[in-house]
């Protein structure tokens, strides 16, 4: 089962992969670059679908925007064409241009024909606002930091306040990077989140409504909605199952089920976006003369994957909170760790 055994939490009934990370999907790698210099407390996280030339060997992909309060780039072409042709970068809101530049630089270096004998490249970058902890106006993150995250990509990676998660907050505590995976027959489905959303009183962990006790512990107001929801969460889903971009969008939609299980209601000022991709087969940039044939599962076979998407998302969100260490805002206000607070949360 998907279990954070140290906390006595269980998330659903499907078995996780060996790492319980998105990188249990064969070929997927994740890398971080964390910037922690003075008031610059931010970073970049890279997700690579495979280690080859992604521009020439694209992967099927789809995007689902649940609430579009965000400044991501590249989503329009993914939605239109159903493919991903660069790695995915996650960062803070004002560092999207630098992250995009890093993806373009990498693609140009590997593909000298881009912009000359073939088209341009579509970089995909997601963001959350880490301004309360990070000096976001200082724009300390540079394209070389994004390049470092790409270079650091590996099957093993850290969760919590690392990479893009360095400056994030969620449900009144420290947020950031979280991940989980599930096995579905001979396939694997994995999820990675960047959590920067939610109110303390709404948090649910493994079916336990710990929010009221957490809010009490934090001294937060007891009203149903203490303040407007202005956070965001980015959800990346990967699978090695042979599915089409249309089916990937259906999978992406089910991540909202897992998000809802943790207490999110997707407020007006919050941005919730999911991107799903499959590594089962690639799509050549230069199409063959003969029609390409893609293998896809029947829609009636997707239910276990829908369940896996919900379970892995739910666990990834809570994992991001339990792995993140305590911090302070730029104004010196404490941003506690859920792991530190856990033993003293009332009625847990």
Describe this structure in words.
Strands 5, 6, 11, 12, 13, 14 and 15 form a 7-stranded mixed beta sheet that branches. The model has no long low-confidence stretch (mean pLDDT 93). This protein has one domain: L-amino peptidase D-ALA esterase/amidase (4-Layer Sandwich). The chain is an alpha+beta fold. It is 23% helix and 26% strand. It is built from 7 helices and 17 strands. Helix 2 (96-110) crosses helix 3 (143-151) and helix 5 packs across helix 6. It has helices spanning 75-81, 96-110, 143-151, 211-218, 245-261, 303-323, 338-341, and strands spanning 3-4, 9-10, 29-37, 40-48, 57-68, 83-84, 88-92, 124-128, 169-170, 173-174, 176-184, 187-196, 232-239, 271-278, 283-284, 327-328, 334-335. InterPro entries: ArgJ-like_dom_sf, Peptidase_S58_DmpA. This is P1 family peptidase.
Write the layout of secondary structure elements.
Elements: E1 3-4, E2 9-10, E3 29-37, E4 40-48, E5 57-68, H1 75-81, E6 83-84, E7 88-92, H2 96-110, E8 124-128, H3 143-151, E9 169-170, E10 173-174, E11 176-184, E12 187-196, H4 211-218, E13 232-239, H5 245-261, E14 271-278, E15 283-284, H6 303-323, E16 327-328, E17 334-335, H7 338-341
Parallel strand pairs: 7-8, 13-14
Antiparallel strand pairs: 1-2, 3-4, 4-7, 5-6, 5-14, 5-15, 9-10, 11-12, 12-13, 16-17
Helix pairs in contact: 2-3, 5-6
GO molecular function: aminopeptidase activity
Protein name: P1 family peptidase
Organism: Nesterenkonia sedimenti
């Amino acid at each position: 089962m998907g279990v954070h055994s140290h906390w006595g939490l269980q998330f659903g009934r499907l078995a996780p992969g060996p790492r319980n990370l998105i990188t249990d999907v064969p070929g997927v790698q994740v890398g971080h670059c964390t910037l922690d210099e003075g008031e610059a407390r931010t970073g970049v996280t890279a997700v690579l679908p495979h280690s080859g030339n992604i521009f020439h060997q694209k992967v099927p992909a789809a995007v689902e925007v649940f609430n579009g309060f965000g400044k991501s780039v590249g989503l329009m072409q993914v939605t239109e064409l159903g493919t991903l042709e660069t790695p995915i970068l996650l960062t803070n809101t004002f560092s999207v241009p630098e992250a995009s530049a890093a993806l373009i630089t990498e693609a140009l270096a590997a593909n000298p024909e881009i912009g000359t004998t073939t088209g341009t490249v579509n970089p995909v970058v997601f963001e959350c606002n880490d301004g309360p902890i990070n000096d976001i106006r200082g724009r300390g993150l540079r394209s070389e930091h994004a390049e470092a995250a790409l270079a650091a990509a590996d099957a093993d990676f850290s969760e919590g306040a690392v990479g893009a998660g360095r400056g994030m907050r969620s449900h009144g505590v420290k947020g950031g990077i979280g991940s989980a995976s599930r096995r579905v027959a001979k396939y694997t489905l994995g999820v990675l989140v960047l959590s920067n959303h939610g109110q303390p009183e709404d948090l649910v962990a493994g079916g336990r409504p710990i929010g009221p006790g957490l809010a009490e512990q934090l001294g937060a107001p007891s009203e149903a909605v203490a303040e407007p929801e202005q956070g965001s969460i980015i959800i990346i889903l990967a699978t090695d199952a042979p599915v089409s971009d249309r089916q990937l969008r259906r999978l992406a939609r089910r991540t909202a089920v897992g998000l809802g299980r943790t207490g999110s209601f997707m407020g007006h000022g919050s941005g919730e976006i999911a991107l799903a991709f499959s590594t089962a087969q690639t799509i050549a940039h230069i199409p063959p003369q003969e029609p390409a044939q893609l293998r896809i599962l029947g829609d009636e076979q997707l239910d276990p994957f829908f369940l896996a998407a919900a379970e892995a998302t739910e666990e990834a969100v809570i994992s991001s909170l339990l792995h993140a260490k305590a911090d302070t805002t730029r104004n010196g206000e404490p941003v506690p760790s859920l792991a530190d607070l856990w033993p003293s949360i009332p009625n847990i």
